[in-house]
Request: fold
Amino acid sequence: MSKSKKFNDRPFAYHQEIELEIGTLTNLGSGLARVILPDSPAPGWVVMVPFALPGERVRARVFRNHQNYSEADLVEVLTPSPHRVAPPCPVFGRCGGCQYQHFSYAEQLAWKRRQVAELLEHLGGTTFPVEPVVGSPQKFGYRSKITPHFAAPREPNFPIGFLRQGARFDIVDVPRCEIATEPINAALGPARARAREEGAEGRYPRGATLLFRDAGGAIATDGGAPITENVAVTPPLRLRFLARDFFQNNPFILPAFVAHVTEQAAAAGGRFLIDAYCGSGLFALAAARSFARVAGVEISESSVAFARANAEANGIANVAFFAGQAETIFAGLDFPPAETVVVIDPPRRGCDESFLRQLFAFAPRAVVYVSCDPATQMRDLRHFLADGYELRRVQPFDLFPQTRHLECVMTLTRPGEI
Reply:
């Protein structure tokens, strides 16, 4: 990285190399070491080193000092972890898409479980047993949607790929993505060639983003194209939605993931279900047979239209879908709260304060909270606990092998409801 004109040279000079013992991993997937400085109290100054593993001794080069920690690039692994493996991707360590290809899969799962437990304690303000992470049946070649991009073409073979690790604008060229499905990789080469031809013709003055969505081997590259996903839950679901719309991107673990969410909702004993942030109807339709009536709410009108069509196509008549802000989902619903379970699957930023206020005012008997960011989920957990909900189960799922990301499902109930 180039030196900033405003580089803070304390406690380390720019590009100073230091030897470190990596003690743990951050929830961003970086190795974390502590350095005892002459003027700092124990436990020492924190240095974060991407691609370093717990238990390793490494040489690292500092590129940024913050107020209370430093960031450094990995230069050399002096003493490797016994869990370090050879990453299959030639751009691993430069591409910012994956953090753990060099980490044995069993240890990835163990550390993800540990990180959920730590977030529970530090952000959720509680301790609770975390179930072992449910691993993905497919460790590579699982991702059914990728969006490589490129900046305004300034050279014939301009890079098309993903952001460089630690960078905001620099793009690493990715001819093949090891975590993407094989049909996507087969389509990637010709699409990259076309983009470069069109770039040379001046079609992309500001760059562009490509889209590849794999639906059962059929590749959609037009975000507005309807596609069909077959989900092997019981009974099987056939869902249609737009290629650009949100949908879980690991079809190999999806049946187990959906089954857990719907089983937890059904086990809460309610007769009614509300699916907030329902998308094209995945959870609402999968759980419908366990409830008398189901309501799904989604901000995207196109998703609601698909959800309604999906209900009809799958012969499910006890589900109604509504377009509108999730923050007003309880307006007009006649479900008795004491007999209602709510499934929430908010965006990465977690639940809005206004949504939580309305949820707690409605006071459903149970909530199944699905999250792709356990940090914001555990932040929200504090509000649930303060409102009197009890945490019943914490179950992580590894929908994103080789990366720091995971999905986590929390089950919460009113006291005495289960």
